[in-house]
Amino acid sequence: xxxxxxxxxxxxxxxxxxxxxxxxxxxxxxxxxxxxxxxxxxxxxxxxxxxxxxxxxxxxxxxxxxxxxxxxxxxxxxxxxxxxxxxxxxxxxxxxxxxxxxxxxxxxxxxxxxxxxxxxxxxxxxxxxxxxxxxxxxxxxxxxxxxxxxxxxx
Length: 154
Known about the structure:
Elements lengths: L14 H18 L3 H4 L3 H24 L3 E6 L4 E3 L4 E3 L5 E6 L14 E4 L8 E6 L5 E6 L6 E4 L1
Antiparallel strand pairs: 1-2, 1-5, 2-3, 4-6, 6-7, 7-8
C-alpha cells in the first residue's frame, strides 16, 4: 500500500533555482549579443542588399500603379539613397557603386546618370548597383532596362 507522508518530495526544480538559471542566461546573452555582428561577417551587408532590392521593387511597383516616374537618387558623398519619400543611408563598412544605364542622350539629363528611374510602363533606365563589404563579399543588384525587373546576385 501507498502511504503519504510529510517527507515525500516530488522531483523537479524550485522557483528559486529557475530564477537563478534565467538570470545567468540573460547575463550571458547581454555579453554575447553585441558580438554577433563580428561572428557573422557579411550579415549586415546581406540585410542591406535585401532592403535595397525591396526598395527598388517597391519603386517600380509604385511607378506602374500610379502611372508616374519614380526615382532612386544615388548620393555617394552622404552615403545614402534618396527618394521623395525617404532617405536610406548605408552602413559604414559597405561600399556602394552605381552604374546606371543610359537612355539616349536627348532623353536623359546628365544629372540623372546617378539615378535609377522607373517609368509608368514598368521599364527603367536600368543599371547595376554593386554593394561590397568586408572580406570581399559583394552583392550585385541588377535593374533590367526593358522590363524594370530587379534581381539580386551574390
